[in-house]
Amino acid sequence: MNTQITFLDVKFKNPIVLASGILGVTAASMKRCIDMGAGGITIKSLSMEPRTGHPNPTMGGFDNYFINAVGLSNPGVEEGVEEVKKFKQMCDAPIIGSIFAGSVEEFGKVAEIMCTAPIDILEINISCPNVGEEFGSPFAYSTEAAAAITKAVKKVAKKKNIPVATKLSPNAWNITQIAEACTRAGANAVTAINTASGMVINSDFQTPYLSNKVGGLSGPALKPIALKSVWDIYNNVDSPIIATGGVTNGEDAIEMMLAGGTLVGVGSAVFWRGPEVFSKIVDEMKEYMKKNNVKSLKSLIGKAHTNKPKIR
Ligand SMILES: Cc1cc2nc3c(=O)[nH]c(=O)nc-3n(C[C@H](O)[C@H](O)[C@H](O)COP(=O)(O)O)c2cc1C
Q1: Is residue 311 part of a domain?
Q2: What averages of pLDDT result for each successive group of 10 residues across the chain (312 residues)?
Q3: The three-state (H, E, C) secondary structure of the chain, written as one string
Q4: For the whole model, what pTM was predicted?
Q5: CATH number of the domain that 261 lies in?
């Protein structure tokens, strides 16, 4: 059984990667995910300067979803670069750098620093839904802004031969067009999707649950939206996809690949199933492969597009 995946010429022992923002940015925590079976890591999104993020409460877990407004807290890109270097001294697993900024120009500058780290792929986070008061609407809602940022970052990353993936938002009404614009602007891949804008009201206190009031929805409730986004992008855009959103078990991951994902991001499931979630998901995928006589995971990418629905 072959679980290996090559994505943008980078070899992953399996397609399951830690999504950005989960489990911090230290080399030790990222290495732990690899030890626990992840095929690769995405670092927390890094900004030019360190950020403390929003005050508590910033996160809540419910039956089928998480809501968070962490507010992109991070130690800044320079410290992130050092952690990536340490990570690469500890293991040779692929690492995806993630950056965000408030303008096209600043994205270019953060990318310049991020690309001094030994990252394998650079992810451009233009889709965080919980920093609107500071940054306005996410750039991922506009084809022009998404393309301009992708172009600026690509220009920098190209000098270091680092491929870029732009991370998209499920709140853009035209995610396929945004993906297409980013691809035309030089993105080698897209990540679909970030959290969906949402909120929770605390009926006991009669207040919003989060200090930021609104936040990003993740976890199982997000999966059908993620699947549809991946499906639409695969159908219309010539870019490989890091399929992310609501993947909790092996079957979810298989569904994401059948919809068109090449890699599969896992975030909130770490909070539900612990860091062992990576090996558990991979084992569950292997069980599926055995049961369905699938020799290689690669063969599943986009396969649901050619099969007709069946009545069970
Ligand atoms: C607490 C938390 C923090 C996150 N921080 C980031 C971030 O810094 N950058 C980013 O691109 N996405 C961030 N995300 C979004 C995830 O990477 C992922 O796209 C989203 O949670 C959907 O996947 P999931 O349902 O597996 O969690 C964050 C998600 C959560 C739950």
Answers
A1: no
A2: 96 98 92 97 97 93 94 95 98 97 96 98 93 86 96 98 98 96 98 97 96 96 98 96 98 98 98 96 98 97 88 71
A3: CECCEEECCEEECCCEEECCCCCCCCHHHHHHHHHCCCCEEECCCECCCCECCCCCCCEEECCCCEEECCCCCECCHHHHHHHHHHHHHHCCCCEEEEECCCCHHHHHHHHHHHCCCCCCEEEEECCCCCCHHHHCCCHHHCHHHHHHHHHHHHHHHHHCCCCEEEEECCCCCCHHHHHHHHHHCCCCEEEECCCEEEECEECCCCEECCCCCEEEEECHHHHHHHHHHHHHHHHHCCCCEEEECCCCCHHHHHHHHHHCCCEEEECCHHHHHCCCHHHHHHHHHHHHHHHCCCCEHHHHCCHHHCCCCCCC
A4: 0.97
A5: 3.20.20.70
